[in-house]
Each structure stands twice: as structure tokens, then as C-alpha cells.
Specification:
mainly alpha; two-stranded antiparallel ribbon; two-stranded antiparallel sheet
């Protein structure tokens, strides 16, 4: 990515302190933008690489399950390929339904406190990965990271 040069800091005796404050403000804003772009570039590598390498699979009975039928998801912002996504079919639906039926006995027999603890652990995991979730969803949907971070 080509980063533009910062605005020049120069003294102009005719404009006085207001011009110097404006130039300083512009330079600080430039530095903030460059830092933000650098951080976003690192996030792209860190968060999206796992999906580019493995693709997006189904999670059935605690296992990642890939299907033969896949499609490519693209960023709506620039149409770059993000990942291959498994398209669920009858086989995956059948596997998921059997896994849910098998898990229902344990879930329905659990106490309210045990269920609460499980759901809180899931919520804590979402909170811990909120930045990652917001970034990935922003790339996938085209929404701003600011909006998606509130949604995540």
C-alpha cells in the first residue's frame, strides 16, 4: 500500500500561529490515519488468513465438516476473494440434526446453573473475540468496523 508523504511543517511569518496550529493538526491527523491503516493491514493478515487457508466449514458435533459443494465469498468493498464457504446440503443437515438429537439428552438433563455457566462461557468467548468478529463481518458484509463492533 502506497502511503502519501506527510504535509510539510513550515513556518510562515505572514500567517502566524494559526497556520502553524493547522499544519500541526493536519500532520497529527495524517499520523493517526497511517497508524490506523497499518493496524488494519495487520488485522487482514491475522484474521482472514485462517479462512483463506481452511475455508469456512460447518461445525457439527464438535467437528469441522466440509461439504463438496462450496462457493466463494467476496468482499463487497473491492470484490476480493475472502474464502471458500461450504454450502450445506441434505447430508450436512442430516448430520446436524442427529448431533442435536444426541446432545439434547445431556442439555435437557443439565441444571439451570450448568446451562447458565455454558451460555456465559459462550458469551465471554464472543466478547474476547469481539474485534476479530467485527472485522471479519465488516469485510464480509461491507459494513463499517465501527458499526460491526457495536453489533458484535
Amino acid at each position: 500500500m502506497q502511503i502519501p508523504k506527510p504535509p510539510e511543517k513550515r513556518k510562515n511569518p505572514n500567517t502566524g500561529a494559526r497556520q502553524n496550529i493547522f499544519v500541526t493538526f493536519t500532520y497529527l491527523r495524517y499520523k493517526w490515519i497511517v497508524n490506523k491503516l497499518s493496524r488494519l493491514t495487520k488485522l487482514i493478515g491475522r484474521y482472514l488468513e485462517q479462512f483463506r487457508a481452511q475455508g469456512v466449514m460447518h461445525r457439527i458435533d464438535g467437528q469441522d465438516v466440509s461439504s463438496n459443494d462450496q462457493f466463494e465469498t467476496k468482499s463487497p468493498a473491492d470484490h476480493t476473494a475472502l474464502a471458500q464457504v461450504s454450502r450445506g446440503g441434505a447430508s450436512e443437515i442430516d448430520q446436524a440434526a442427529k448431533a442435536a438429537k444426541k446432545a439434547f439428552a445431556d442439555w435437557s438433563g443439565a441444571t439451570g446453573k450448568a446451562r447458565r455457566d455454558i451460555l456465559h462461557a459462550v458469551a465471554d468467548g464472543i466478547v474476547a473475540r469481539a474485534e476479530e468478529i467485527a472485522f471479519i463481518e465488516a469485510m464480509d458484509t461491507g459494513q463499517t468496523i465501527r458499526f460491526m463492533s457495536k453489533a458484535a
